[in-house]
């Protein structure tokens, strides 16, 4: 059968049945507030093929900051404008995937991974946003890099066909195990 005729339901459980990615290179998004700002280029409109599939979202963002004092920075994954991933925090409005107690430069990749059940085959948009932990003078966070150094930000989405165990199969496995005990 030609690959173009295969349906998502024809693949075995655990198979990646769809993927999408966004890569942002040599582009920077700046933020010096405690409000989330979308990382330039990291947004994907995604329509699951199966309602019971598992969606995996992974992001990696290059962070560059030069705070005037102690501070932290956080990134999170959003679905249709609502945050779905979490960061360590002192309170919900103060994420700190990266934190330091001194006023020195932070140059590092931050990453997040999130899983969910699709729930439907309706389209949704995933994006990545970041914000500073605490607003202080001269505390600009740069997500990405615009200086041509090749720093890349990624947003990757994979849809897996869900693992489905039928009751009869489970009972057969249990009976076989009992015969060996």
Key terms for this structure?
elongated, 5-stranded antiparallel sheet, 11 strands, 181 residues
Describe the protein's architecture and organization.
The termini are far apart. This protein has one helix spanning 167-180, and strands spanning 16-25, 28-31, 37-46, 54-65, 71-79, 82-83, 98-100, 106-117, 124-132, 141-144, 152-160. The relative contact order is 0.32. The protein is elongated. The strands form two sheets. Strands 1, 2, 4, 8, 10 and 11 form a six-stranded antiparallel beta sheet that branches. It is mainly β. Helix content is 8%, strand content 46%. Residues 1-5 have low confidence and may be disordered.
Provide a quick synopsis of the model.
With 181 residues, the protein is mainly beta. It contains 1 helix and 11 strands; from the N terminus they run βββββββββββα. Helix content is 8%, strand content 46%.
How would you state the average pLDDT, rounded?
79
Helix fraction bin: under 10%
Beta-sheet strand percentage? over 45%
The helix-strand sequence is EEEEEEEEEEEH
Largest sheet: 6 strands, antiparallel
What structural class do the secondary elements suggest?
mainly beta
Rg, rounded, reads 21 Å
In total, the number of strands is: 11
| Dominant shape | elongated
Q: Which spans of ≥5 residues are poorly predicted at pLDDT below 50?
A: 1-5
How many H/I helices? Answer: 1
**Distance between the terminal alpha carbons, to the nearest Å?**
44 Å
């Amino acid at each position: 059968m030609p690959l173009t005729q295969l349906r998502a339901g024809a693949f075995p459980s655990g198979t990646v049945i769809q993927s999408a990615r966004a890569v942002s290179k040599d582009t920077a998004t700046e933020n010096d507030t405690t409000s989330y700002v979308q990382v330039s280029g990291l947004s994907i409109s995604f329509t699951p093929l199966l309602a019971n599939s598992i969606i995996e979202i992974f992001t990696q963002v290059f962070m560059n900051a030069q705070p005037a004092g102690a501070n932290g920075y956080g990134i999170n994954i959003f679905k249709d404008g609502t945050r779905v991933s979490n960061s360590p925090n002192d309170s919900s409005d103060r994420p700190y995937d990266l934190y330091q107690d001194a006023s020195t430069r932070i140059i590092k990749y931050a990453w997040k991974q999130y899983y969910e059940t699709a729930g439907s085959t309706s389209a949704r948009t995933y994006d990545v946003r970041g914000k500073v932990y605490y607003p202080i003078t001269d505390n600009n966070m740069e997500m990405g890099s615009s200086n041509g150094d090749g720093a890349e930000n990624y947003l990757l989405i994979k849809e897996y066909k869900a693992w489905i165990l039928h009751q009869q199969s489970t009972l057969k496995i249990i009976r076989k195990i009992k015969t060996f005990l």
